[in-house]
Amino acid sequence: MKVIIVDANIILRFLVKDNDDYFERSNAVFKQVSEGKVQIYISPLIIAEVIWVLYKIYKINKSDITEKLSNLISDKNIILKEKSIVLKSLKDFSDKNNISFPDAYIANASIDNSMEIYSFDKGLLSAYPDLTIFQI
């Protein structure tokens, strides 16, 4: 099966539907995914960019972002390295106060891979009190 990589703007136009032409074109791509004709590779970096734009520019709330992206990336034809970490991080981004997606990603990567975290970020420590976070 053919695998393609999409940029954040394709995902954004598909989710926000703010430009009819771009929505139709991006929707055609995701329709091929749902029909099993193509797979899409999305990197966690692109997910972080999409989240930032939806939250900061479009002012979409965290729970709606989490729902939209979780539904999108759960498709079996979406290839996303560390998909389980991204999904957990989206949930934490939505559920925990004052946690960014990148911080949630670092915490969940640490948990899944039994790694220590070194950070100056006190917010990360307060969001994940059970983690050992070394303040250097």
Summarize the structure in short.
The chain has 136 residues and is mainly alpha-helical. Helix content is 60%, strand content 10%.
Q: How would you summarize the topology of this molecule?
A:
Blueprint: E1 2-5, H1 8-16, H2 20-34, E2 38-41, H3 44-57, H4 62-73, E3 78-79, H5 83-95, H6 101-113, E4 117-118, H7 122-127, E5 133-134
Parallel strand pairs: 1-2, 2-3, 4-5
Notable characteristics:
136 residues, Rossmann fold, mainly alpha, 3-stranded parallel sheet
Could you characterize what this model shows?
With 136 residues, this protein is mainly alpha-helical. It has 2 domains: 81 residues, 3-Layer(aba) Sandwich (Rossmann fold), CATH 3.40.50.1010; 54 residues, no CATH class. The protein has 7 helices and 5 strands, in the order E-H-H-E-H-H-E-H-H-E-H-E. The chain has a 3-stranded parallel beta sheet, covered by helices on one side. A two-stranded parallel sheet has the order 4-5. Strand 4, helix 7 and strand 5 form a beta-alpha-beta unit. The longest helix has 15 residues. The model has no long low-confidence stretch (mean pLDDT 94).
